[in-house]
């Protein structure tokens, strides 16, 4: 695909990555930017800075405002919002499946559907049935894909993605990285990242 | 003044409060919103969640990206940026003077000039001469105002502001609070706060 590339680094457990995932595709298309969806895990990165859970759980006032803010943002975008329990969720399996999915034409739809299930319908990603249901809704063979996701090669690919995110000094999700290495963090920086990518 | 009121809670040590302070006045005026400038201290609030310095110092990758992000934002706004040393600065005296200044017609100009001195010119607010210089540039009697700022009544007013910020569950700067109690945090939420205030 011609045009500049923007890497979209995302972790399914991340709250603000939900509106970002819903917005990013159409905005990138309008800007003529090829958005490369790159799942990774925030857990090892948070652990490296001494966090054992989401900062929104560690800092309650900040967490309460984040949920309210996310609700407002989803309302403005006209996308459903329902606060998930538990939070954060283990997204290891969903991220592995996303890696497989993103080699297919329906991969981005899968990622959006996972975010919608989690933050729009409060479904639990730790339940394999949630992921299987999303795959089936997309007309895919859930059993075969879940099996491929558990392959050693695929597991290693996710570890490699997470290691690359750390190398890029990514510290949160969503993050956007341009071809010349500019790092933009947060749903609110999507427009600035697209602008940088096309300047 | 007619029209809705939006409280603009700010701490001079806060990086993103610099572009917010530069943007807020004109945007509020355009929206027909009366912006009420309310200085407070983040120190006691950060300490209550176990932080002894800025989170940008506690989390180095996040901190490096914040400085770069702030530089990009200031570039887009066409306002000067120079990274201050030390960071964060003790802003106790500047906040006390701001309380006095904001009873005067030149109060908001004083606040903007303090932010510009700190983040646009890397001047040190811990040096009383910096604050005196800003006051003099505004044609004011620096000695008299610095003295008023140190009055018991004024010191208590700043403590009361900080206590009210805590009561409102403010956890960062800038924060915007509408008359019906909606809390918006961050320079990037200024537009949303103004929209909420006028809906």
First-residue to last-residue Cα separation of chain A: 18 Å
Apparent shape of chain A: globular
Nearest-angstrom radius of gyration of chain A?
A: 16 Å
At the first level of CATH, the class of chain A is: Alpha Beta
Described by its quaternary structure, the protein is: homodimer
Please name the two chains that share the biggest interface, counting residues whose Cβ lies under 8 Å from a Cβ on the partner chain. Answer: A-B, 24 and 24 residues
Q: State which percent range the strand residues of chain A make up.
A: 5-15%
The residue ranges of chain A in which pLDDT falls below 50 over 5 or more consecutive positions are none
Task: Tell me the strand order in the biggest sheet of chain A.
Answer: 2-1-3-4
Structural class of chain A: alpha+beta
- Give me the strand/helix succession of chain A: EHEHHHHHHHHEEH
Instruction: Tell me, rounded to a whole number, the average pLDDT of chain A.
Output: 96
């Amino acid at each position: 695909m011609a045009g500049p590339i923007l890497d979209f680094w995302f972790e399914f457990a991340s709250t603000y990555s939900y509106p970002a995932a819903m917005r990013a595709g159409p905005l990138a298309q309008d800007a003529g930017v090829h958005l490369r969806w790159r799942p990774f895990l925030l857990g090892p990165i948070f652990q490296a800075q001494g966090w054992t859970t989401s900062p929104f759980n560690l800092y309650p006032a900040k967490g309460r405002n984040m949920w309210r803010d996310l609700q407002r943002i989803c309302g403005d975008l006209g996308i459903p919002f329902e606060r998930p329990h538990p939070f954060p969720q283990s997204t290891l399996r969903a991220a592995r499946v996303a890696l497989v999915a993103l080699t297919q034409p329906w991969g981005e739809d899968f990622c959006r559907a996972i975010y919608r299930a989690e933050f729009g319908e409060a479904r639990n990603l730790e339940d394999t049935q949630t992921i299987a249901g999303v795959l089936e809704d997309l007309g895919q063979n859930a059993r075969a894909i879940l099996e491929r996701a558990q392959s050693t090669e695929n597991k290693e690919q996710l570890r490699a993605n997470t290691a690359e995110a750390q190398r890029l000094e990514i510290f949160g999700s969503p993050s956007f990285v341009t071809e010349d290495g500019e790092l933009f963090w947060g749903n609110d920086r999507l427009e600035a990242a697209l602008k940088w990518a096309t300047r």
